[in-house]
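*** Residues and shapes ***
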Amino acid sequence: MHCPPSSKIELQANKSLISLSDFLNAKDSIYAPGWLPGRIAAFVVGKPLWWTLEQLGIVGEEGMFGSSSSGRHNDTRWWGDYVVTSLLEGAADQVLEKQRVKGGGAGDRLYSFDSFRKDFGTAVGTETPLTEVDAKVLLRYLERDRKVIVFDKEVIKFIADNVSPHEISAIDRGILELKNAVQGLHAQVDGLQNKVDECTRKASAALRQKRKPVALNYLRSRKELEELLSKRLGSLHTLESTLIHVEAAAGDIEIMKSFESSTATLRTLLAHPSLQRESIEATMDALAEVNADAKEFDEAIRIGGGLATNTEDVIDEDDLEDELRGLIEEVKRENVVADDERDIASIRAKLHGKEMQVPNEILRTEDKGGARVVLSTS
């Protein structure tokens, strides 16, 4: 793939490539208007421009001008050091994610320059610590453009959202010194343990070779190393315990600052004229008055609606009760009559039935006290 000689100029013009010196010395964010018209997803620091363009697919292995015989891509005078943005952005995202997972303790937010390079080397896709240039660019970006850290030559501090001011204090420096001392002791303990194991292996090997004096010498060395290891472990325990207490105290200070800020905010709110006793009483009185007016309006509307739908006089409740009792009596009488009719119908059905017929007999009826009685005679 061939690329015209103007490619480098065009990439710099639209800020796809940023000169390393310009990036580190710029005071304004690269995202400020006019600073970065376009953004490309890549991050290269301390790499030759030809290599960068090859990774972006702009040039091939034959070089910038399409010919490896020219040897121009082997001339380091035109390479320079450049920063391209999106791998830088991706690296920053990885660093912030790793930091988020670690937690938010005071000690967890503090790093020295060397520990930052070591801890976050794998976060940007390398198995070794970041180079000094890579680390400087990444720190500059996190501070100026992301505003998530503050740092000086000795201390790097990730900013907690709920902690202010965002500055490095004497407490931070003390915590970092303790943290570095603990890490140093851990390294010493690991080294001493390795030496103890090595003495054990060598003593065993000497015994297998029937070199008893040599084996005894290794055992004496192991004994001394074990005593030193025991002392270092005691010191490590003391330092770790101290670091825990210091971090707890620093956390308490941050909590107290949050309490103070919350108290000041609440005081400011309570001092608002709307929350003064006189204002509250006046507001509640006005609210009660408005509710009373609303109730009067509601009653007036309800009464007006009743008058509009009922032009007769007000109904007397006693008259309604009398009418109800009369209806009840009438229903009872109707029920009695219905029962009598059902009885008569039943008797007639039985009289006309086969079971009540008397052959060769004469039937007659007569009145008995207003009721008709059936008599039979032969």
In short: Residues 212-270 form the longest helix (59 residues).
